[in-house]
Amino acid sequence: CVKIGLDMPDFYNSLAESDLQRYAEQAGLGGDNPIDLQHFLKILKKGDKILEVGFGTGRLAKHFIKEFDYTGIDIHKPYVEHFAKYLRSVGFKNVTKLIRMCSFQDFDESGFDAVLFPWTVIGDFNKEEQIEAIKKAKKILNSGGVILIDNPAKETVYNKIEGYNPVKFYFHAWEEKLSKMGFSNIKCKLYSTNTGRVREIAILKK
Q1: C-alpha to C-alpha distance for 174 and 95, rounded to whole angstroms
Q2: Which helix (H) or strand (E) holds 152?
Q3: Is residue 58 helix, strand or coil?
Q4: Cα–Cα distance for residue pair 139/40, rounded to 1 Å
Q5: Element (H, E) at 128
Q6: Are 34 and 60 a contacting pair, CB within 8 Å?
Q7: Contact 7/76 with Cβ under 8 angstroms?
Q8: In 3D, which of 52, 206, 48 has the Cα closest to residue 138?
Q9: Contact between 106 and 53 (Cβ < 8 Å)
Q10: Which of 79, 94, 101, 149 is the most buried (most CB within 10 A)?
Q11: Cα angle vertex 142, ends 60, 167, to 5°?
Q12: What integer pLDDT is reported at residue 159 of this predicted model?
């Protein structure tokens, strides 16, 4: 797979793994049991086949791998290599089955019970790509599967980092458009992080 379809590749190429982890903590998504993970686990079912789009340093993936049939993709080689090294260090053999360097546009597998866009990953796509990403995620889901899109809520600040300009995604601004995409149910769940930020998870059921 090749790197295409993201607005900010240069930003991430210059962002070290340690910096990415630090910004997760700044957003209130750090620690051994991240608050977003806790909410994802309330929605997912043990053993689900899940796809995480943009696993980064493996902040969530290292937990998901324990309970789910997990696949993670990311387009940034340093992050993929960083997490692959971690997985091997804790005894995983077939690392390439679990994670790979690939853009979502080029990802060609299906049959998932859940597709996750965690920690504002959807904001790395421009508006048109966001629509296409949601349509593709729906296409590769099993019947009854869910798309989970996590973002700061409308009244909450984004991390402010030079070069970081995500395309903001708010459930209520998208609700009418999403309702026309043929989902059986759509809803939004709000939660607060340990740094006082409010986030939303859009839950789109096929």
Answers
A1: 36
A2: strand 141-152
A3: coil
A4: 21
A5: helix 127-139
A6: yes
A7: no
A8: 206
A9: no
A10: 149
A11: 50
A12: 87
